[in-house]
Design brief:
With 359 residues, the protein is an alpha/beta fold. 29% of the residues lie in helices and 24% in strands. Strands 3, 5, 6, 9, 10, 17 and 18 form a 7-stranded mixed β-sheet that branches. It has a 6-stranded parallel β-sheet with strand order 13-12-11-14-15-16, sandwiched between helices. Strands 2-1-4 form a 3-stranded antiparallel β-sheet, with no helix packed on it. Helix 3 packs across helix 9. Bound molecules: zinc ion (ZN) (2 copies).
């Protein structure tokens, strides 16, 4: 089968023929139809800031496709079933897995980082990682649900517990943060205040339902948030950047009793407010790591029910052979992409990107 293999940072991925894996007991072979290209792939393949467990390895952790073959003992999947793959091969046995929190698994392996991933004609996964994809959700949308959309959902719904009519600030509205705005809107938050240095990201945040969009280079974000919330501040501030100063800004935006949710990851040390303010205003600072399998199930249900429309988030669809050019454009942020999806095999995507890329 064909696969895009990673040999080393700054080397193009090699599209090569590799043996097609065979499903063992409890495993399923998924014929990949669509696989999302993500910042993580960029960190691995271009920047070299994330190391893979082995080299060469097939990259890609955002997969949707059709079951090709089920191994022995698999009773709930059969050839032809449509599915999206939870990208984290969790052990299923540790205390985190036992409580349904696979993102915190002690022995997890991420597709395309610790195990061969989705930029290939076939993907081998344990059956328990698959989630059913209804016919109404196109493969290219199914693929992006398995990371950027779910990570944002977990932050907004599970960790932020955003409720209707709450004032929400979203700091950093790129790939994940953009969907943070969408989920805040879906949950009825108001007002939603988006913050991003990029004019394109601010425009898209407004389209996704943000009531206001601030450029932190132009405005004092905390002051503006207070002005836009009748002087009170935000109930919840979501941070998708991963820098100390943006976490500080998130905390400064909060009203008394408010909560900041940090999703962004980086090397900097975070400073808490003085305890008089932190405790005295009963502020909360929580973090949000990825998402659990149950989040993906819920999201697929919400998308199928028309609760959110993420089809416009697929801004480009490329073939497996075009993956290196797409990675390069993603690295240069050419055309301000939200999500780029790799189409595997011949089939017709339905998301809005098809209109753009085929025009
Ligand atoms: Zn991803
Ligand atoms: Zn586990």
């Amino acid at each position: 089968m064909k696969a895009a293999r990673f040999y080393g940072a700054n080397e193009p991925l090699k599209i090569e023929d590799v043996p097609q894996p065979q499903p063992g007991p409890g495993e399923v072979l998924l014929a990949v139809k669509a696989a999302g290209l993500c910042g993580t792939d960029l960190h691995i393949a271009v920047e070299g800031t994330i190391l893979t467990a082995t080299r060469p390895i097939t990259l890609g952790h955002e997969a949707a496709g059709v079951v090709a073959e089920a191994g022995t003992g698999v009773t709930n999947w059969k050839a032809g079933d449509r599915a999206a793959a939870f990208p984290n091969i969790a052990c299923g046995e540790c205390y985190a897995c036992a409580s349904g929190r696979e993102a915190l698994c002690l022995k997890s392996r991420i597709l395309g980082v610790q195990a061969d991933g989705a930029f290939a004609e076939y993907l081998l996964v344990p059956a328990r990682t698959l989630v059913r994809l209804p016919d109404s959700i196109p493969f290219e949308v199914g693929a992006i649900l398995t990371d950027a959309v779910s990570t944002a959902y977990h932050a907004v719904a599970c960790r932020g517990n955003v409720l209707p009519s709450e004032a929400v600030v979203v700091i950093g509205c790129g790939g994940v943060g953009h969907h943070g705005v969408l989920w805040a809107k879906q949950r009825g938050a108001a007002p939603i205040i988006a913050v991003d240095v990029s004019a394109g990201a601010r425009r898209r945040a407004r389209e996704a339902g943000a009531d206001h969009a601030l450029d932190p280079a132009e405005a004092d974000v905390a002051k503006s948030v207070r002005a836009l919330t009748g002087g009170a501040g935000a109930d919840c501030a979501l941070e998708f950047v991963g820098r100390a100063d943006t976490v500080t800004t998130a905390m400064k935006c909060l009203k008394r009793g408010g909560r900041a949710v940090v999703v962004g990851v980086g090397p900097e040390r975070v400073a808490l407010p003085p305890l008089q303010a932190f405790v005295g205003s009963e502020l909360a600072l929580v973090t949000s790591l990825g998402f659990h399998r149950v989040d993906l199930e819920k999201i697929i249900g919400l998308v199928a029910a028309g609760e959110v429309d993420v089809s416009h988030s697929v801004t480009e669809i490329v073939s497996l052979e075009q993956i290196n050019e797409a990675l390069q454009r993603l690295a240069e942020r050419k055309g301000d992409p939200v999500r780029v999806v790799v189409r595997v095999g011949e089939w017709s995507p339905q998301a809005s990107a098809t209109k753009a890329t085929r025009a």
